[in-house]
User: Fold these one by one.
Assistant:
Number 1:
Amino acid sequence: MMKYRLLGRSALRVSELCLGTMGFGPEWGWGADYETSRAVFDAYAQAGGNFIDTANRYTEGSSEWYVGDFTKADRDHFVLATKYTLHDRMGDPNFSGNHKKNLQRSVRESLKRLQTDYIDLLWLHAWDFTVRPDELMRALEEEVQSGRVTHIGISDTPAWIVAQCNTIAELRGWSSFTALQVEYSLLQRTPERDLIPMAKAFDMAITPWAPLAGGALTGKYLQAADTPPGRLKSGSARLSDAATTVTREVVAIAQELGVSPSHVALQWTRQRDAIVVPIIGAKKPEQIIDSIGAVSVVLSEQHLQRLHQVSALELGFPHDFLNQDGVQQVTYSGELKNILDISRA
């Protein structure tokens, strides 16, 4: 059974793993039908899961309809998270974007599909570079004040914009983003440059999407013959030589521990120095059951070091520059080791 974590600086209790429902519905050609989606949902809920992630665009709205059906009998038990930004109607510019008109319309439509009168966590899905941060945060605050939304989060947005938005919200006494959703895995560590340090500074929870890198970290694509046509191309970063090296290390550690590779990959994201709640998806109940098993796995420091080293990335400027011994020598007068409460990047 899963335990619970607080979602960032909020007191909202969410399960250790979040159920991603982008594959609930057959409209995109690869998702699960209603009955199979229900079986996946039930397996997750029976293991103590209460945190459900969907979006207005997922499977043309079917994902929200399914989630609404599955949760309506015990709505207040579940923490429902959905997103706005992506289009509901092609060819109409006001049916997409971060602006207030689309926000209000999208929330109304999501509430209908989810068959509820409030959303526990509303994500801004992706930054569109057309809305001023102050205008956005005021519009989101109005949704919170209306009772239609309880908490807000942000996804797929540059760190400096998130920091600006939260600073404005805190200054004006508005609701700030309590969680950050980004792609993050052993094959995608670039959020460690700015996004994750920013989230930690604002006490935001981090909910990684694709923590298994589209299934690549399970090892199932190590054999080229197993690559599904149209899903992962030969030039994909998830099938590069570097990715294969990382995946082989994940598989090796899994064999040493007697667990599945998915457990190792998921647990690596969870054993970070931040509040991390990975989003797990599945098209079959057995897949979700396997992923849930990660909560009982603990990686040793040796295992963590092996994974860090094999997947290491260059942080780039200014991070690598500031971490140089010579720079730190002149910055801290040679006393860094004697200054308490300073964490080195």
Note: The chain is about 35% helix and 15% strand.
Number 2:
Amino acid sequence: MKGSLTILCCFIAGVLAGLFADLPAVVTESDLTLWVLYALIFFVGIGIGGDAAASFSVLKKSNIRIFLIPVAITFGSLTGAAVASLFLADISIRDALAIGSGLGYYSLSSIYITEMRGEVLGTISLLSNILREIVTLLAAPLLAAWFGRTAPIAAAGATAMDTTLPIIIRSSGKEFAILAIFSGIVLTIAVPILVTVILS
């Protein structure tokens, strides 16, 4: 939990800095966060390469079953969204499925949903998928301990290949990095297809 609390404190500090501090344009208007993310992925790659035997042994053991991870994540996300729609009077099952099909990819899914269904549903999609990422960042150690080492990958959805990858590695082990990246790539490709199919 120490790592999760550190992440939460950094997030809160960033929000407060954005609200109250007079930050230079290089911080607020540049692609600095993108470059930091690239640096994180670079160091993750070094970690995988440094212990390639352990990393690729997980991939070898998984073989064709590796596809079950993104399939199960998609099925679970859509099923959860469908069940949630039963308790939400203003959201139809179709709209709930569209939100669930964002799979954590908040930027792209919210744009698609806004264009096809309007700003309200697009905003709900954005917030729900951002919340999915935040929950993963904070709860990954607990998820790995309670539900197994692939649980943080499932919670992360499409973000398992980038923003949540470092916390997944820390919680599940670096040998699971390749599974996380593979799952994240497959889900990222699936998001625009799912959203379009559900709403068209």
Note: The mean pLDDT is 82.
